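> example.struct
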């Protein structure tokens, strides 16, 4: 080929390559947006305590609205996966991410307090819930749900103490950084012989933890 023909051939090949690259780039962009959208819907489903299967209903609504407002974009909405399985995996991924963020913050805490209580769910299983409130060296306060532990057997003080330890161990919360523990006034929490607080003091002697209980009840009485 002559120099002119070679130049024309190179320009033609470059245009074809650029077109193919843009096609894949556009496809990746749409797929990334669709994945992002499915995470948003899954988060809202979890946040509002809705059924995991509601994602499919949400998608049906989205497609019908799209038919009215922007029918040319319907294919983009079709790519948003909101099946029960997908919503479940998205929520699990969000949970792992939030837990990871909390674990990274815990390593920077100087002092922290724990509020805990147990309640029975609809399956008649007792759930122990631990909330953590902490401050770092920059005086930034973090307040989060630390964990929820299932008590499938008895709910004695020793059971609560065991789940308390395992929950904090999983999150790598240093016991020495705890300055307060707040519970209700139930015997399994505050009992002098075998309650949770008794077991805590036995296993961690010399601690400077301040124990509080029935704060909400006392506050309500005072307000009344």
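> example.seq
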């Amino acid at each position: 080929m002559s120099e002119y023909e070679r130049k024309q051939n190179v320009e033609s090949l470059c245009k074809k390559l650029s077109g193919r690259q843009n096609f894949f780039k556009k496809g990746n962009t749409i797929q990334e947006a669709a994945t992002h959208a499915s995470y948003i819907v899954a988060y809202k489903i979890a946040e509002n305590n809705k059924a995991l299967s509601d994602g499919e209903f949400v998608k049906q609504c989205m497609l019908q609205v799209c038919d009215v407002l922007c029918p040319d974009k319907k294919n983009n909405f079709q790519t948003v996966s909101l099946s029960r399985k997908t919503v479940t995996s998205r929520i699990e991924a969000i949970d792992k991410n939030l837990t990871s963020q909390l674990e990274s913050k815990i390593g920077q805490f100087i002092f922290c307090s724990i509020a805990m209580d147990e309640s029975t769910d609809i399956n008649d299983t007792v759930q122990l819930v631990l909330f953590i409130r902490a401050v770092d060296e920059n005086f930034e306060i973090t307040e989060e749900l630390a964990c929820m532990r299932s008590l499938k057997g008895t709910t004695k003080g020793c059971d609560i103490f065991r789940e308390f330890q395992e929950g904090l161990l999983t999150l790598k919360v240093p016991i020495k950084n705890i300055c307060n523990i707040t519970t209700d006034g139930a015997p399994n929490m505050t009992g002098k012989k075998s309650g949770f607080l008794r077991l805590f003091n036995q296993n961690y002697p010399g601690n400077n933890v301040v124990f509080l209980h029935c704060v909400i009840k006392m506050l309500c009485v005072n307000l009344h």
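> remarks
The longest strand covers residues 109-120.
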